[in-house]
Amino acid sequence: MSDISRRDVLAMLGAAALSPLARSGWRGPTRQPAGPGFRIRTITAGITLRKPADMEGPEAALTFLQRAKRAVTDAGYEVQTLRIATQPFLEGAGSRARADALPSLQGLDRAVAAESVLLSIGPVLAPDDYDTDFAPWAAELIRTTRNISFSARVASPERGASPRGVTAAGEAMVAIARATPGGIGNFRFAAAANVPAGTPFFPVAYHRGSDAVALGLESPPLLSAAFAGANTLAEAKQNLAQLLESRLGALERLVRQVARHEERSYLGIDVSPAPGKDASIGAAIESLTGVPFGDYSTLAGCSAITDVLKSLRVKTCGYSGLMLPVLEDPVLARRASEGRYSVRDLLLYSTVCGTGLDVVPLPGDTPADRLAALIADVAALSAKLRKPLSARLFPVPGKAAGERARFDDPYLTDCVVMKAE
Q: Do 121 and 88 contact (CB within 8 A), yes or no?
């Protein structure tokens, strides 16, 4: 997009898109939210397990996470979740080893759930692994646990996209959807493409190396504040960069100090602005473009935000890109229900964004090979663009395209089921 005024962009899209204030030529000051203006979505501790039944490492991580949470909340930040990510100790282990590990994983899940902590065991399948036992095992793990997440690796820097991994991931999503009410279990499983170690966001998180800590944010209100009153794309990007760096610098210094005191590596902040029910990334994008999400200029808006996130002068980790999780964001869900964008559009936005296809509601009868085809496109994009992407697809049992899926879950919002195209 050229550096022209946002009013000019909107005029090209039609005068009906302009708000009354925009039509009057009003320019308000940039609004800055009180306090930090964002929540810490996760403090994620990275650990190495000696074996699935090992409790020493998780117990030490639980103690550390409570101390870290106390330090940042005392400094005025809100912490939503505490999480632990392990090394991918089951990757390449084979079906017998996975089956043998299931009781230990269930015990580990009970231990972390008792402390309201989430756990990710990382990718369970290597890119070229495939066996028919994986899908039922994945469904059983999800069905019998509450807080464990995991993934299947479908692309890697060394091997590119993996057809076998793509097939396994699609079969697992179908099995998980059938095994859990409303298909809710797919919230804790994803196909991961070139996702690096140290990513704090679930379900793709995993760990390598010495004990570490990383942060993930919920920060769409900061984006909306930065865009308010900006007349050009360049001004909006400059406002966002300055606001994020000023707000995140203090947090980074604090967590570095905590990590140093606890003798843990500080991996950085995943600056992806993860949304919540009251913190919509869809609304933030609309405040930049001036049009409903999915209309023309949405791609340009997504690209502009990603450019800023990739250029921040703080230590970043993980995706550090733009997240578009349909079922976690009320504005994204509403625009999907209005038919303003499709799954194909989400794939297009993934070329300039950060995560791929995230909690996308699909018909419950979508076959595994159709899911695998979507995952294959995400893996191909990841390999071609050399960027981390993932696919967290959400077949909703008993629902067809166009029907409304409803969820009794604090993190998910109701949405129409999208076509699996």
A: yes
